[in-house]
Amino acid sequence: xxxxxxxxxxxxxxxxxxxxxxxxxxxxxxxxxxxxxxxxxxxxxxxxxxxxxxxxxxxxxxxxxxxxxxxxxxxxxxxxxxxxxxxxxxxxxxxxxxxxxxxxxxxxxxxxxxxxxxxxxxxxxxxxxxxxxxxxxxxxxxxxxxxxxxxxxxxxxxxxxxxxxxxxxxxxxxxxxxxxxxxxxxxxxxxxxxxxxxxxxxxxx
Length: 205
Description:
With 205 residues, the chain is an alpha+beta fold. The protein has 6 helices and 5 strands; from the N terminus they run H-H-H-H-H-H-E-E-E-E-E. Strands 1, 2, 3, 4 and 5 form a 5-stranded antiparallel beta sheet that branches. Helix 3 (74-90) runs antiparallel to helix 4 (95-106).
């Protein structure tokens, strides 16, 4: 083959074995880097999302406008209260957050319940109860609020309405899992809004 013919060979055919090897190595290195980056992101991202979920639940309740968006049903109200309770006992909250959550909870209480539990008394008892939970590593693992169809609504002699609903709590602690069933009693205030009048334990298994 003469010099002129050799120069007419297309460029990609004249790269040779060395050029081809370099291309393959470059592509391989890029693919390996992509796999490493993907594996790193896959391992780190879920942990970040879990932390954000824990924090946002407390913030979401604190920022909720309960006054202007008050729960309209017995089940909605009691479910909200159990969510506040889970923030009390399950999360690492500071003093300011605890006070905000306590204020939200008291917005759901009947005037008679508020009168029997002045703010300072309620707050001190709450802090003590949270401390007791922490000492035995106790947390609320699951809450089951009865269906709306299970709510028992009855008229009262004074014309008001009273309702009852059962809530089942599952708690984990050092000795295992406990189950507690409580009945919540509610009645309507002058603004026709359900308020928590009180609650009590039915059984503890």
